[in-house]
Structure formats: structure tokens, C-alpha cells
């Protein structure tokens, strides 16, 4: 592959260190709703899923409907924890700046709602690194990851050919989505199962700072 036209970043776990926070809050919420869940359980069973799929999977396990307002209360509590604890992934800002300085188009494609992505990028000082119209959400397409819809939508909006896009992900379902879209995929494997990411078709990335060299910019 030649130097790509576009680098598409996932947000949670790639740009912002939010996965542990989100899943701690989710574990507490599910446990309080009658489904005992540890943070490790939540990371294993729900990491990377769009919230409506988290709710559906939890209700299947619970064999009951979650309480009214469950999703809204979870999102509210998660925002409070983000405001207290959220940090950028090491090297995220420097890497995005280096890509932009080389003339590369960059964007963010997340399972989360746009307002969540806006908030987390703003809290971590990363929002200004992406253009106003360069944030994309699975809520804007028919199907979230592991389907390719989100990444194809982002590529079309950014006027890039899917075959000339590189995706930076951290979950197996994200890798499957990107590969299904025909895109080269780098998996930031800080806390993930490297063998599963490789099996899904990703190249393992241990530092965001390695991205420019891997895609042929240095």
C-alpha cells in the first residue's frame, strides 16, 4: 500500500484512556440492576459495543429488562468519572500532529455518540486536532462495528478511497469492521489480546508514535 489518504482513529482506548473508566461504571450499574459484573467481566463481554448492544446483551444475560433510565443514568455517571479521571493516550496528540504536518487527512470514527466523542476529546485537549466535520459516530449509520458501515461512511465523508485508508483500533470488533471495509488496520494493543487482534487481520501497534513510520511517512 502506498502512503494512505486518510488515517481513521477509533476514540476510546486509542485516543483517550476511557475503557477502564467506562467499564468500571458499567460494572457498577449492571451489578446494581441485578446482574453481578466486575470490571474485568465488563471489559471482556461489552468492550467496543455500541450502548444499545450492551443493553441488549446484558438483558439477555439477566433474562429481564434493565430498569427504566438505565442507559441515561450510566451515561450521566460515566461523564462524571470522565471529568474526574480521563486522560489522553500517551503520544496521541503528538502522533496526530505529525500526521497533519505531513499533509495527512485524519478523522475519528467511534461507536459512541458524537457528543461523547466531543466531550472526551475536549477533556483531553485533543479536540482541536480534528476538523469540525471529522468526527463520526456509529449512531449515524445503520449498523455499528463489527460491520463496516461506520468506516465506509467516514471514508466517503472525508473523500478517501477505502483502499487508501488506515484505521487505528483497539478492539477485535473494530478490526473486523475495518478489514470488512477493505482498510489496512493497526491495532493498539496496550490492554488487548494480541492474538485475537492478529487473527482478525490487524498489524499490532505498541505505541501510537510508530504510526507515521508504519504508513510510510518516515
How would you sum up this structure, described in words?
- The protein is α/β, with parallel strands linked by helices.
- It folds into two domains: 6-17 and 87-214, 3-Layer(aba) Sandwich (Rossmann fold), CATH 3.40.50; 19-85, Putative phosphatase, domain 2 (DNA polymerase, domain 1, Orthogonal Bundle).
- It has helices at 19-32, 39-46, 51-62, 70-85, 92-101, 114-123, 149-157, 172-180, 194-200, 211-214, and strands at 6-9, 105-110, 135-137, 165-169, 184-188, 203-205.
- A six-stranded parallel β-sheet has the order 3-2-1-4-5-6, sandwiched between helices.
- Helix 1 (19-32) crosses helix 2 (39-46) and helix 1 (19-32) packs antiparallel against helix 4.
- It is globular and about 50 Å long.
Keywords:
six-stranded parallel sheet, Rossmann fold, 10 helices, 218 residues, single chain, DNA polymerase, domain 1, 2 domains, alpha/beta, 6 strands
Draw up the topology in text.
Elements: E1 6-9, H1 19-32, H2 39-46, H3 51-62, H4 70-85, H5 92-101, E2 105-110, H6 114-123, E3 135-137, H7 149-157, E4 165-169, H8 172-180, E5 184-188, H9 194-200, E6 203-205, H10 211-214
Parallel strand pairs: 1-2, 1-4, 2-3, 4-5, 5-6
Helix pairs in contact: 1-2, 1-4
